[in-house]
Design brief:
By secondary structure, the chain is mainly α. It contains 4 helices and no strands. It has one domain.
Length: 111
């Protein structure tokens, strides 16, 4: 698998590099957003809402009501999943950009 990544990085086009740079930048911005006090408050409130929804779901009067509640809780979880995915894509893009840099940055000791 490492060889495939190195081949992909070595054959990267400007379009690939542009996409990787954008993903790396977006991942960095989202990671910084997650460190903010406001995001921490939002996260705490969403997690509390998810816990509340679980409790309400357990007490639902019908299967249909339980399903509506479950879907709401799923949306909250999806928000966190999207954030994690954007950060991971940024991390992966940084790895690819670093490998590209290593391949195309000549070592001064190499002659």
């Amino acid at each position: 698998m490492g060889l495939e990544i190195n081949d992909a990085v070595a054959n990267a086009t400007e379009e690939h590099l542009s996409k990787w740079n954008k993903a790396a930048s977006t991942g960095k911005e989202v990671r910084e957003m997650c460190k903010s006090p406001g995001f921490k408050i939002l996260k705490e409130r969403l997690e509390a809402r998810m816990a509340d929804q679980r409790n309400v779901w357990l007490k639902a009067d019908s299967a249909e009501a339980a399903e509506i509640i479950r879907l709401k809780a799923t949306v909250y979880k999806e928000v966190f999943d999207i954030i994690a995915r954007v950060i991971k894509e940024g991390d992966n893009a940084n790895i690819l950009l670093e490998k590209h840099k290593q391949i195309y940055t000549k070592n001064p000791d190499d002659k």
